[in-house]
């Protein structure tokens, strides 16, 4: 009877936990992936080149922005911002993780970061005209808060799901996230269509809606997941922050004692950078390189969102039969094919562009959801949030190697095609490192129970 009650309690918390994927996916999809990158790029181009009249739309803007004494291509600005945010994340998020591992109220900590991020996301409604500086600052702050909230969120997975449940729970969370993000994106698609004569205003309203959505639905996991005392934190003297710095240093030294975990983390850093940059660059690529209207690019992202639901759930079921590791590895080869296909897609070819969106949807959710659950098996108990902070440094919207490569190649070549193709190197490096990972050995080294299927 007690075991049944424990199972019912776990399932109840898991259902509440899923809703943060639903909540933050509004920002990740509507703002970060679809609307804000091309919108901020247009604002930056207007600031660099001046107002562009209808007669001048066919002309190429060659003027750069001047940032801290450097000349920065307006078309590369967004990718440099994401690069800077992730460099900052490398310093900030591990401290967030160490604090979370010592916190007795992770749900409230999750809510604090999420509501701060949603505030910055909502304030994007005020980005207009040539005010690219405000847009850059808000994107930086919202991205950092998103990363911090996901550190706490991912670490809660270990507390609410047994080893054999994690692939299923993680996949369901991602699937619900795709559904939530897709529904708001669909509503914004309708708004952009109805307000076709006031596209800029429609985009700003959509950005505001994403911030509100993120804030409102975060209430469910904050109230539905119970607080738990920390488990075996590293003994360090001093207050919470000082002790957290000490725990971080201890964990970084200890990471060498988990070579399989370290190898997977390095593999994930590379291949997830590739995934995140493809998603982040897709809207800019579709509009600026392939010549599609904003509404068409948004429609393609809707395809990704709703196909992604089936992809995440399907990959989760396959992982239950053959193991998450093999599914992740297979998915990376599909990502290689997606990059090459995107590079070859001719301008204005809508059927091929939508087919590419379907392929991305199939593989996107599965590789990310299973990476999260697989990594949770490779980390020692009591250190989940801190280890997930290292993981989050290269998670959604916080990649830096890929965005730096993409931005630099675009600046050098003045084309997004070679910039996209250059991302292949990240997937190749990720695959090369992932094949060196021994899942069973890694789980045993971390002191964790082996699931039935590894």
Overview of the structural elements:
The chain has a two-stranded antiparallel sheet with strand order 1-2. The protein is mainly alpha-helical and 454 residues long. The protein has helices at 2-49, 77-102, 106-122, 132-160, 166-194, 199-217, 219-224, 240-254, 259-289, 294-322, 324-344, 350-376, 384-392, 401-413, 416-421, 424-434, 439-445, and strands at 65-67, 70-72. It is globular, with a radius of gyration of 21 Å. Helix 1 (2-49) packs antiparallel against helix 6 (199-217) and helix 11 runs antiparallel to helix 16 (424-434). It has a single domain, classed as Growth Hormone, Chain: A. It is 76% helix and 1% strand. It contains 17 helices and two strands.
How many discrete domains? Answer: 1
User: How would you name the oligomeric state of the polypeptide chains in this document?
Assistant: single chain
Which architecture name does CATH use?
Up-down Bundle
Give the CATH class: Mainly Alpha
Please report the total strand number as a whole number. Answer: 2
Shape summary: globular
| Major sheet characteristics | 2 strands, antiparallel
Query: What do we call the CATH homologous superfamily?
Result: MFS general substrate transporter like domains
Let me know the average pLDDT. 85
Query: What is the distance, rounded to the nearest whole angstrom, between the alpha carbons of the first and last residues?
Result: 30 Å
Q: Treating each run of at least 4 consecutive H or I residues as one helix, how many helices? A: 17
Tell me the helix content: over 70%
Strand arrangement within the widest β-sheet reads: 1-2
Strand content is under 5%
Series of secondary-structure elements, N-terminal to C-terminal = HEEHHHHHHHHHHHHHHHH
Uncertain parts = 52-58
| CATH overall fold name | Growth Hormone, Chain: A
Structural class by secondary-structure content: mainly alpha
Radius of gyration: 21 Å
